[in-house]
Amino acid sequence: AKACLENKALATYLAGEDEQYQRELTIISDLTAGLAQGQFHLEFQPKVNIQTNVCRDAEALIRWQHPDLGFIPPDEFIRLAEHSGNIGLVSEWVLQQAVVQIADWRKQGLELKVAVNLSAHDLLNLQLPTLIQDLLQQHQVPARALAIEVTEGAVMKDPQTVIAVLQVFKNLGISVAIDDFGTGQSSLAYLKVLPVNEVKIDRCFIQDMLYNQNDTMIVETTIALSHGLGYSVTAEGVEEQEGIAYLRERGCDVIQGYVYSKPLKANEFSNWLQAFNQANSSAPNENHSKP
Ligand code: C2E
Ligand code: MG
Ligand code: MG
Ligand code: MG
């Protein structure tokens, strides 16, 4: 679990400080225009229920192909968008794209629940629930087809307010997941009163769980604790085949990781899904994991 504590701003050390500063300025000043100019797209990563071998969920992940800088990882520009006050624009764009995609899939007969990541700042935007409701209505998408993910860290910035806002989302019928669980200094007292449906165990605990006894303990305990509180459990970042059986035996509900698929463009995702569900419907209790 050492990886959980590593500084994400590693890039600052790799590039020189000036170069890094220039890059950040460029990212901040190009973000809004880039959104309008079609430099962004969403990718979708399957979330597979390992108890039933069925995939009905996906997480939407934003991608930015910058004309000069090339691919910019979301971890980098989301943080800058948060600091520069542009995150609201990004989130509205993501929500709009995700709902349009859900509607599109529904027209093709694919009933999926798509999760969108929101930032701490979004949760303090009192207009957001109404905006989302309007979007859903406009595209005739039921609220149960949308989920939101908020990190444990975002919740802990202002737990009282965030709990109230998450309750509003839940009341609308939108599922709520707590993301990157285990990395955000949350207290157990809050976990018990959070209006969430799902806990996502952070990848840093998952990646070594087969080899590191401490991580094994953390994963097992988190599953037990979450189930005890009535939440579904998703393991993020499973890369190895062995991880599937391991987590299934321990009662974990869902896996999201490269072992099934990396994030995919919308049309690749629906191809993957069709192949996966076909391969698994013929023998529903077999341990198939790849199409
Ligand atoms: P996250 O929400 O925890 O998303 C999971 C990240 O883990 C994604 O990285 C995904 O590609 C990666 N991942 C999934 N399975 C595996 C695996 O098996 N191995 C490895 N090594 N990685 C795996 P990505 O897409 O780079 O996103 C990073 C973070 O950026 C996200 O973490 C989320 O916090 C943020 N992010 C991405 N899209 C959005 C967005 O639309 N809005 C906001 N606010 N944040 C976003
Ligand atoms: Mg997420
Ligand atoms: Mg996560
Ligand atoms: Mg993350």
TrEMBL record:
Regions annotated as coiled coil: none
Q: Which residues form the signal peptide?
A: none
EAL domain spans which residues? Answer: 24-277
Descriptive protein name? EAL domain-containing protein
The shown residues of the full protein are 488 to 778 of 784
